[in-house]
């Protein structure tokens, strides 16, 4: 695994950006830039498992929420790679990797930092798509704000 990290400044309150990150409609919007058709299944609560799944091919990852401070920080640990819409495990490409989202606000400008472990062979893809997804998050959050 390779850890990659990106940040972006957004002219919106961190509560607005948090909602943009995790509300179903906006999550599907920006996450589809990374992997088309991605949606999230589960309840965002520390200690819960969440599934990130592709509506196109049924592949995804099951992740445990390790740490959750609403509107500020979330840390996921990928506990299983899945297929068949999360019903079966598959090869362990993402398993044990982590992914975090951090928000800090100052004078109405919020910095979003996304840090994620990616399989070495997917580093180039994610290094291209993740910044584009973050630009989409910025556009969606600033539009609401």
What's the Cα radius of gyration?
14 Å
How many structurally independent domains? 1
Distance between the termini: 36 Å
CATH superfamily label: START domain
What level of helicity do the residues show? 25-40%
Mean pLDDT equals 90
Oligomerization status of the protein chains? single chain
Main sheet properties:
8 strands, antiparallel
Remind me, CATH topology?
Answer: Alpha-D-Glucose-1,6-Bisphosphate, Chain A, domain 4
The parts where pLDDT drops under 50 for at least 5 residues are none
- What would the principal axes of the Cα set say about the shape? globular
Number of helices: 3
Describe this structure in words.
It is a single chain. The chain is of the alpha+beta class and 145 residues long. It has helices at residues 14-22, 24-34, 123-144; strands at 2-10, 38-41, 49-54, 60-69, 73-83, 88-89, 98-106, 109-118. β4 (60-69) and β5 form a beta hairpin. α2 (24-34) packs antiparallel against α3 (123-144). The longest helix is centred in the C-terminal third of the chain and has 22 residues, at 123-144. The relative contact order is 0.25. The mean pLDDT is 90. This is Polyketide cyclase / dehydrase and lipid transport.
Topology:
Blueprint: E1 2-10, H1 14-22, H2 24-34, E2 38-41, E3 49-54, E4 60-69, E5 73-83, E6 88-89, E7 98-106, E8 109-118, H3 123-144
Helix pairs in contact: 1-2, 1-3, 2-3
């Amino acid at each position: 695994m390779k850890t990659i990290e990106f940040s972006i400044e957004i002219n919106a309150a961190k509560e607005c950006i948090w909602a943009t990150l995790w509300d179903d409609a906006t999550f599907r919007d920006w996450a589809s830039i990374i992997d088309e058709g991605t949606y999230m299944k589960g309840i965002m609560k520390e200690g819960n498992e969440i599934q990130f799944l592709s509506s196109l091919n049924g592949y995804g990852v099951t992740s445990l929420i390790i740490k959750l401070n609403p509107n500020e920080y979330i840390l996921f640990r990928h506990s299983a790679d899945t297929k068949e819409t999360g019903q079966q495990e598959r090869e362990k490409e993402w398993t044990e990797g982590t992914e975090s989202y951090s928000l800090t606000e100052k004078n109405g400008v919020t910095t979003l930092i996304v840090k994620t472990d990616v399989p070495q062979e997917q580093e180039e893809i994610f290094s291209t798509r993740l910044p584009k997804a973050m630009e989409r998050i910025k556009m969606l959050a600033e539009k609401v704000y």
